[in-house]
# Entry
Amino acid sequence: MACATTYMTLCYEDKNIPPFFLGNGFEVPDKRPGATIEILRKLQSNVRTVRFKFVRKPWQRCLNDIQKNKVDAVIASYRSERDKFLNFPRNAQGSVDESLAISMLGTCLVGQQGLGQDVANNNYPLSLAIPRGYSVLHVLQQDLYRVIQTDSQDDAYQLVLKGLVDGSLGLCQVYDEQVAGFPYSETLDPIFPPIDISYGYLALSEAFLQQNPEVAQTLWRGLGAMPLHEYYLDYIKNPVEHKIPRY
# Structure
């Protein structure tokens, strides 16, 4: 007897955010859609009873829709306030299971020559241009950084290149490998160690988890068995456009 197919709608941001998602607008690219979408397509081929439908919306719309059970899943980092409406993979102790994350990425300060010396000499506060919505904003100490929020990722880096701010944030580590996963890496330098290590998860709605608990566990375990770092490294080493990743 054939198993029933489970259809699930996953909402992700409508902006170009390499290496996770490529392209702007509502269209989901067929080719080179971003590492995260390629991972999910591969997961779908591994778990043949699940079919994803991808929809693209502004990030806040995705969060609003999953709270109302209008979509089944998003890709999100864990925060305690999201426990109210998102379900993350858990271990036997009830903690979020990092081994089942869909990504593990490090974020560094990025700037022109001299930023590293400023950090080494504790020349704070530093001015940072950061796009609105960066989850890493909550880890920045207010006494060390003066944050200028921008409308886009490109706007933030343009301020750095013009010398109007000291730096920004950029992807500098994929799992255990150091990378220069940010634009203008021939001009700008990352400052190690990362100021934040971020885990991204396939996070599910309340309704989907209640109706499909076994499917949820199968998907999370499937992600834990995949060589996820290879997908992100491919997009970083073979970039399509010069943009910075955001999570």
